[in-house]
Amino acid sequence: MWITTRSAVCLLLIPAAAVAGLTSESQRDRDDNVLHVVLPRDAIPAISSPEFEAAARAPLADDELVIGIVGEREQRAYSTWQLDRHEIVNDTFEGRPVAVTW
Amino acid sequence: MYAREVGGQVLSFGVSGMLFRDGLVMYDRETDTLWTQVDGQAIKGALAGRTLEIVPSVHATWKQWKQLYPESLVLRKRGMPRSAYAAYNRDRNRAGILGRRVRDTRLAAKERIIGVRTAAAAAAFLEKDVREARVVHADVGSMPVVLIAAGPETPVVTFDRRLAGRVLSFRLAEGAPEVLEDHETGSRWSLADGRARSGPLKGAQLERAPAYPAFWFGWLGYFPGTELWKR
Predict the structure, then answer these.
(1) Chain A residues lying within 8 Å of B97, measured CB to CB
(2) pLDDT tens digits, residue range A22-60?
């Protein structure tokens, strides 16, 4: 999940001391428009050659959240638990290039 | 979900490792432009100022999804990971690493909402209220929308209510799960794909409205002027 996930990644990877400087109010206000580098580029690998399987055979849990796309002829789902580890899937759906983002 | 084509060029995105307002920042491999994932804006680089076109998506649990779309395909899973963020998602006191102050007190920071947006407007709907109401009609800016929670086992789906110059309103069809009926013509619509299956509008297609599940604080970071729907 975009907002929650990125935040959680930081919480997992950045020592508390590194964020202590962000606690004052004025600093927070400025931070609203700042790009924060928290990981190296591609440390979280996007998927660019996605592979699919039939829903009937897919090993997902009933409570697993998915993002889905519904087209004229086809429907595809992407597990957010899997997207937690990739964040982006570069896919092509019914001929249209799409980015599934989380 | 976004279209990857911008000005005739197909882009391929990667994870920049940066955050903007607690949200993921993507980069494209073709122009090295930075894009915010939440609202699809190019904020730095050759394509700065451009906006990605939204592709409306459905958000559901697996159980809900496969009931509506049993013939669908699923991104192949490697291993069987659980969510890496289950604990974070449950913790009401952790609202993002940057610690931005949430000045808006209409809802608690981590209330789960469904956000609907257009190019010019944004509205938030408390998910539990939508599930209780089951059918919600609202206007997001100039876009009349309907949010439908047919039952606990179906996802909340959101459609644009405009069809060929008229605005429709809906109810759940009695005794028929996953079927909608419009008040104006009595046509019956499939919840799964938004197509009219019978009645005067048979064959017509509703467009999905861009809707996403989010935490209230996250939505506010990008859409501070958002409206909040009240029951």
Answers:
(1) 6-8, 10-11, 14, 19, 38
(2) 444 455 555 577 898 999 999 999 999 999 999 999 999
Q: Which residues of A touch B95 (CB under 8 A)?
A: 7
Q: Which residues of A touch B101 (CB under 8 A)?
A: 25, 28-29
Domain of A85, in residue numbers: 44-102
Tokens 């004229």 map to which residue?
A72
pLDDT by residue (tens digit) across A72-89? 999 999 999 999 899 999
Q: What is the pTM of this model?
A: 0.80
- B186: region left, alpha or beta (phi > 0 left; psi from -120 to 50 alpha): left
What domains sit in chain B, N to C, each tagged with a CATH number? 5-44 (no CATH), 109-229 (2.102.10.10)
Residues 6 or more apart from B27 whose CB is under 8 A from it?
A41, B13, B14, B15, B16, B33, B34, B35, B45
Segment B58-72, tens digit of pLDDT: 999 999 999 899 999
Chain A residues whose CB is inside 8 A of the B85 CB are 1, 4-5, 8, 84
**Count of domains for chain A:** 2
Q: Name the residue among B22, B26, B57 with its Cβ closest to that of A3.
A: B22
Q: Is B21 in Cβ contact with A50 (below 8 Å)? A: no
Based on the fold, state whether residues A94 and A51 are members of the same structural domain: yes
Residue recorded with tokens 């990667």: B14
Interface test with B, best of A42, A66, A80, A100 (most B CBs within 10 A): A66
As for the ipTM of the complex, it is: 0.82
A24 and A50 in a single domain? The answer is no
Which residues, other chains included, contact A54 with Cβ-Cβ below 8 Å and sequence gap of 6+? B71, B73, B74
